[in-house]
Amino acid sequence: MNATGIPFNGVVRMKNLRRVPLAVALLVGLCPMAAIAAEARLSPNTNGGSGAMPSGYTDLYFDLADGDWTDQLALPANPRPGDMVLLTSHATAPARLDAANTAFSDLEYLSVDPGTHVAFFWDTAAQGWIALDGRSARLLQPAHGEREIIVPQSGHAITQLHDNGWGYTAVRLPVQAPGGAQLSISGSQRSDIQVRHNGDAMSCPAAMACAYVFDASERRWRARSGRTEITTAHVDLPAPTHRWTTLVVGSASEDMHTPSELRLPAAGVDGDIYQVSNSSGDHFAYILTDNTTLFEAAPVSSGPHTFRFDASRSTWVEQPK
């Protein structure tokens, strides 16, 4: 077991990196209490219709399926050392996992698409959930003494590069990845890290968690972070500069600047969220079908309306909620 508390027995060695197999993490090195602690298999329907996963289980299996689904998920809020969560989705509709208390928190959410099968481990040293090696995710650890880390290409939707302060100073990201793939750099690295990809150079500050999204249209990794709220007096909405943009539309009696028609932008980064919110439910504006999967203009009063950008189609895909 290493300094983070993550078991590494039987680790498969790779050039520059060590991968942490999920089976190993599940079966060895956990605290002695694991043998007597609770295990549960839950879904939204057996969890009060909620995607907020309960605390108190050493091994929690949480499953989504058609008819047993929710759009918003959250990992347990009060985990104990060594707690594990295995999240699986057989649902047709995508969901969003709140990225709080993970190395992906800058991204606001992690995509839970059909076929997702990802495990998380509560690391007390990091005070966060670590994504483990498996079907949808991979956990990579630099070898001691490496100065430049070369991340291998893979089809995983989630990659977490987690270190123990070995002192590397550069990471080279893979040339290709699935559209919308999410990658984080986390741990206690002692120096700023130069993040390189196809001639681009970004910087991840020392001992900080940094997250990136692979944009399929540009075939490049993009730093993405945070939420922002905007208002508008223009039909054409601005291209997003954050992971999550909420357009706030006021009541018809007070909001005199929002136009009667709104058009989502033609550009974005894979996974960006644009949400149009009218809490009063009485504004007369409509969201146009342009650049979206809408079949007809949608009144903002029937919202909120949430869209996720698919860069391969240059289209904002309306989300179930």
Helical proportion?
Answer: under 10%
Radius of gyration: 21 Å
* Share of β-strand residues: 35-45%
* CATH class descriptor name of the largest domain: Mainly Beta
CATH architecture of the largest domain: Sandwich
Biggest β-sheet description:
7 strands, mixed
Sheet with the most strands: spatial strand order? 1-2-11-13-15-18-19
Count of domain modules: 2
Structural class from helices and strands? mainly beta
Which whole number gives the mean pLDDT? 87
CATH topology of the largest domain: Jelly Rolls
Q: N-to-C SSE series?
A: EEHEEEEEEEEEEEEEEEEEEEEEEEEE
Silhouette: globular
Low-confidence spans: pLDDT under 50, at least 5 residues? 1-16, 22-36
Termini Cα gap: 42 Å
Summarize the structure.
With 321 residues, the chain is mainly β.
Verbal overview:
The protein has one helix at about 20-25; strands at about 10-15, 15-20, 40, 60-65, 70-75, 85-90, 95-100, 110, 115-125, 130, 135-140, 150, 160-165, 170, 180-185, 195, 200-205, 210-215, 220-225, 225-230, 245-250, 260, 275, 285, 300, 305-310, 315-320. With about 325 residues, the chain is an all-beta fold. The strands form 6 sheets. The protein has a 7-stranded mixed β-sheet, with no helix packed on it. Strands 3-4-6-9-10 form a 5-stranded mixed β-sheet. Strands 20-21-23-26-27 form a 5-stranded mixed β-sheet, with no helix packed on it. Strand 18 and strand 19 (about 220-225) form a beta hairpin. The N and C termini lie far apart (about 40 Å). The model is unreliable at about 1-15 and about 20-35 (pLDDT under 50).
